[in-house]
Amino acid sequence: MADSIKINKLEIENVKRIKAVKIEPTKNGLTIVGGNNNQGKTSVLDSIAWALGGDRYKPSEATRNGSVVPPNLHIVMSNGLVVERKGKNSSLKVTDPNGNKGGQQLLNDFVEQLALDLPKFMESSGKEKAQTLLKIIGVGDQLTALEQQEKELYNERLYVGRTADQKMKYAKEQPYYPEAPKDLISPSDLIKQQQEILARNGENQKKRERADYFKQSVLFLNQEVYAMREQLEKKESELKEAQNNLQIALTSAEGLQDESTAELEESIANIEEINRKVRANLDKDKAEEDSRTYQDQYTELTKKIESVRDEKTNLLNTADLPLPELSVKDGELVYKGQQWDNMSGSDRLKVSTAIVRKLNPKCGFVLLDKLEQMDLDTLHEFGQWLEQEGLQAIATRVSTGDECSIIIEDGYVKSEEAGNMDSEPQTAPTWKAGVF
Q: What is the pTM of this model?
């Protein structure tokens, strides 16, 4: 970033293990301070943090053991500010390019605290890293609300889904009787039907009796015809009428069949068993209907959950994130689809550095300790990314290899050339107390 501020030059004297060190870090990319253990590498980073970050970073034993000269720190920033700490009290002095004096407040404007202590960020939990990122991009509260909404919908859907499964399981376990009627049988209805049949049968019997009556009348009248010739005309008339009535009665009674009440009697006798089957069928139907209802609710809740997840995705996609493919999922930091514990070492460094830069875009540098955990390919990849992003990193590594920009040995910069990052050869120390 064009406006970010970096370290042009630093001079350190009598701080912790440092006797006298002068470094001009590369503007963009990785400056590695190498050396064996206990030679003063970490003291370089501690000195920078103290000089720029204030007394909160002052080492508990700041003065080099055995030195009679107090610490002396001198840093020149890319914006022209000169930062100094010297004297008995290591007082801070900040001078701008115009010669105006300032203090810690002037430094706080562009020095990001996490840039001075990047391991603190890297060692924080995944959720803490995610919260830092969300705070930077300003969507933390919105995302928290959406995640809470998604959690509530998910729990509701889980309950509905389990209930639907239970209802379906219950329905499958219920016996079913296809021959049973759909509705429960009422004994009074069956008895009423039986009485109606008996009444119709009674009417049929009356018709038969009437036919028999007319049949007997015909026989009697035939006898009278022979006996009462004198009344023939009258009786023949009566006969014809009786014959007509007989014909009508016979026609009405012909083909009549009485209805059986056996089925109703059986139903009345078995009414409890029939109703048990009906109730079982009704229970099964109700369970299946309940299951379908809960399944519909489950489907609807699934749509709502997907909608909330889409809203979360859109919220993060439109946010001004420090890196492409960097996001937050389920409260965890995610980069290229991987959570922190699955990221490569290089990706972890990229994410941490990018977030620090986003916290304070004016701060163009970070300090990194103990990069010996990184292999050379990872270091090279990280260095290329820093150059591409226009960022400066000053790091330590237990090594005396060619990847180191300078080598610290016994509190000094080693005299022979070390490193392949265009650093100038360091001359043998000509240090004396209080003077570089």
A: 0.60
